[in-house]
Each structure stands twice: as structure tokens, then as C-alpha cells.
Amino acid sequence: MAQPEETPPEEPQPPILPSCPLPTNICDVARSDRPRSCCGMAVAGLRTAKYHLPEWHRRNAGIFYQASAVGEAAERGRAEAEHLAKRAAAGARRAQQHSKNTLGQRLQDVQFWRTELQKEIMELDAETQLLAAQKLRLERALDATEVPYAVVLDNLECRDRRQPPDLVMDQVERQLVKEAELIRDIRDLLKRTIIQATTQIRSNRIQKENCELDWSDKVEAYQVDDKCLSYCPDSTNVQSHPSSVKFEEPASTPKSWAQFSHDNISSAEQEKLSSVQLRALIDGVIRDSSEELRLQRAAVGEAFDRHLRELAGAKAGLEQHLQQVWGCPGVLGHPAWRTAPLAAFGISCLFHFLEKSWHSQADQQLSIKTNRLSFPWISS
């Protein structure tokens, strides 16, 4: 059985609004206080917003006057700016010239102190070398006194081995003891002088190092100031750093800066003067010591000669008496014949010993005189 077709539902219709008249646009024209135009009321709305010709001229004149005033103000500003620029440029040139003059004076001061320090360093170094040479002379002199001192002590020990009858404190032994004490005192003096020279050399080198440090600072300062002198406002390699023109607290003033170098030079002069005086003292010590040793050597030689002559006379007298004793009849039965040969033999041995000792001293003195083994520093 056929089904009846379903009809679709009807779409809703839009609501119908009632018709009404559109609103009218009413233009309100402002009432003008100007006199009415003679053209009629038809163009009254178009004529009321316009200016009159005198007003237009007055407005243009006002604009021209304002433009002229602004132009004159601009001219005055430009002229003032040019004037300020010229003043700033002139001030910059004056400041730069003043800085150049100040740097030039600074360079002269640095060059002066650098030259003085370099001169002082060279003089102090030369003086130190001279003092070192004098110290070497002292060391050689000290070494040269060892042989004479050993010879004198050996002579004294040999004289102590004499026979008891001849073991006396004679003039020879006194001179030998005096020579030993003299050489001992001279050696002590030379040692003290060497220590003093070493201390002075150390002081010279310390002061020379201080002057060299000050000199190196002056060289670096001269290079920096010389480079700064070549700068100008148009330089392209100038770099501005923060606080670059700030005066630092530990920085020195020109007065203290000059006083520092002056103190270094004064200290170097004092050390140099002390070194010169010490060199003169060393010359005097060497000269006086050598002269005293020469005089004492001559005194010892003279004492040996005198004592040898005395021993030779005593030996000759004993030999003569011995011959007389041996020539007398019946003397062989006398008890003295036993002791007489012994006495003569003792005198002969003593003479031989003293002669040998004297020859040893003479040979040693001859060696001092010819080979300069004892005092090579005397002729230096």
C-alpha cells in the first residue's frame, strides 16, 4: 500500500515593519556679524566664511613679519654659534699651545735628570771597578804575607832548639818577635780593610741599582711625553678613557719628582766620595805596610850580622885559647882538657847553626827582593 508523501515544513517569514518618513538633515549656519552682501540672500551662506582683502593683506604681512623675525633670530643664532665656535677653537689652540709648552719644558727636565743619572751611573760603575781592583791588591797582599810570616815563625822555633848556654833572649830574637807581631798586625789590618772594601762595593752597587731604576723611569716618561707632544685635536689615534685626566692620590708633584732624583744623585755622590777615600786609605795601608816591613827586614838582617860577628869573635877566641892550652906541657893531665874541646865544639856548632839560620833569613830576604814572592802588591 502506497504511503502518502510528507510535505516539508514552511519557512518562517520576516516580520513586516510599518513605513515611516526619513529624518531630515537640518544645517545650522552660524550667523555672521559681517555686513550683508549685496548679492542677495541666495549666496548668504557662501559669503559669510571668507575674509576681506584687507584681512588677507594683514595676515600675509603678519606671516612675512614672523618669518623675517624667525630668520633674523636664526641669523643671530648662527652668528653667535660661529662666534662661540671661533672662541672655542681659539681657546683649544691656546690650551694646546700651553700644553705643548708645558710638555716641552717637561721633556727638557726629564732629559736633564736622565743625563745626570746616566752620568752618575757611569761614574759610580767606574769607581766600583777601581775599588774592586784595590780590593784585589789587598787580597794579594794578604796572601803574600803568609810566606814571610811562616819563615819568621820557623826561625823562632829553630832558635828555641839551641843549647841551654846559648838559649838567650838576644837582639836577633827580639827583632824576629817584633817582625812576627808586625806581620800579624798587618794581616789583621789587611783583613779589616778587605771587609770594609767589600761593604763599600756592595753599597756602590745598591746605589747604582737605585739610579738605574730611576733612569729607566725617566726614559719611559720621556718616550710617553714625546709621543703626547705630537698629538693635536685632529689626531685620529687619540683615545679617551674614564678618569684619564683625574689627579691620582699617589702621584708625585713636580717638586717631589725632582727631589727624588736629586736625592738619588746625592746618595750616589756620597758613596762615590766614600769609595775614593777608601781607595786612598788602601793605598796608604799598602804603602805604609810595605815600608814598615822593609825597615823591619833591614833591622833583622842587621841584628843577624851583628850576632854572627860576635859569635865569630867568640869562636876565634876559644880556638886561640884551645891552641894555647894544647901547646902547654902537662896540660893533658889537667881536667880542663876534657871540657875545652867540648866548649870549642859547642861554639863551632852554635856558629854553624846561626850562620845557617842567617843564610836562611838572607836567602828569604833575597827571594823577597828579587822574585817578589812576599810582597808583589808593593810594585802594583
UniProtKB/TrEMBL annotation:
The keyword Coiled coil belongs to this UniProt entry's keyword annotation: yes
This protein's GO CC annotations: axoneme; microtubule cytoskeleton; nucleus; sperm flagellum
Alphabetical UniProt keywords: Cell projection, Cilium, Coiled coil, Cytoplasm, Flagellum
Entry's localization field: Cytoplasm, Cytoskeleton, Cilium axoneme
GO BP annotations listed: cilium assembly; cilium movement involved in cell motility
Ranges annotated as biased composition (Pro residues): 10-21
UniProt-annotated stretches for the region Disordered: 1-21
Keyword Nuclease in record: no
Major localisation: cytoplasm
Superkingdom of origin organism: Eukaryota
Family: Belongs to the tektin family.
Listed name of the protein: Tektin
Source organism per UniProt: Cyanoderma ruficeps (rufous-capped babbler)
Taxon lineage: Eukaryota, Metazoa, Chordata, Craniata, Vertebrata
